[in-house]
Every structure is written in C-alpha cells, then in structure tokens.
Amino acid sequence: MKRITMALVLALAATGALAQLAEGEIRKVDKDAQKLTIKHGEIKSLDMPPMTMVFRVKNAQMLEAVKAGDKVKFDAQKEGGQYVVTRIERAK
Ligand SMILES: [Cu+2]
Predict the structure, then answer these.
(1) pTM of the predicted structure, to 2 decimals
(2) Nearest CA to 88 among 11, 44, 79, 67?
(3) How far is the CA of 11 from the centre of ligand 1 (A)?
(4) Distance from Cα 51 to the centre of ligand 1, integer Å
(5) pLDDT one-digit tens code per residue, 25-84
(6) What is the DSSP string of 20-78?
(7) How far is the CA of 76 from the centre of ligand 1 (A)?
(8) Distance CA 83, CA 14 (A)
C-alpha cells in the first residue's frame, strides 16, 4: 500500500500536478499592456531567485482577479523569451 502511494505521488509530481507555486506580492496591474509586476520569491521551476519583475499573463481574466498589494501564489513559464503567468491565486 505504501509503495503504491509513493508511486502515485511520484507520478503526480512528474506531471506537474504537485508543482509548488511561487509566492509573490502584486506590485502593479497593467491592463493595457496585459502585464503584472510581481515581487516574487524563488521560482524553482524557472530556476529564478527572488526579485521584482514584469510578467505577461496567460489570459486577461488574471488581471481582474488580483490588485496591487495582494499576496499571491502563482506559476509561470517562459514562452518565446517572455515570462508568462499560467496560474495565479490569492494567498490565504
Ligand atoms: Cu523573476
């Protein structure tokens, strides 16, 4: 039983289902440019240290879901030389 559970956990981790979200704080929401400025902690999936930077967003609704000052958890990918937020939620 324990081995099966472990195998399942590893399988989920491999598909990214358990990928850790990065933590951050929204500094600016730019609806015209469809960009978010986020002060973020380490992003392991991108091998990026903590910093404040600008991200594009995967879809425009993300710009409605957050506002400056919000603490968030998010995931990002590098697409065509730009960093794109692929998932974002307010931290509880
Ligand atoms: Cu960064």
Answers:
(1) 0.80
(2) 67
(3) 28
(4) 5
(5) 999 999 999 999 999 999 998 999 999 999 999 999 999 999 999 999 999 999 999 999
(6) PPEEEEEEEEETTTTEEEEEE--BGGGTB-SEEEEEEESSTHHHHH--TT-EEEEEEEE
(7) 10
(8) 22
What is the Å distance from ligand 1's center to 16 Cα? 20
Q: Measure the CA–CA gap between 7 and 81, rounded to whole angstroms.
A: 35
User: What does the block give as tokens for 70?
Assistant: 């919000």
| Model pLDDT, residue 4 | 74
Q: Which domains does the chain have, with CATH numbers?
A: 20-90 (2.40.50.320)
Which pairs from 47-52 meet CB under 8 Å and 24+ separation?
Answer: 52/27
pLDDT of residue 83: 97
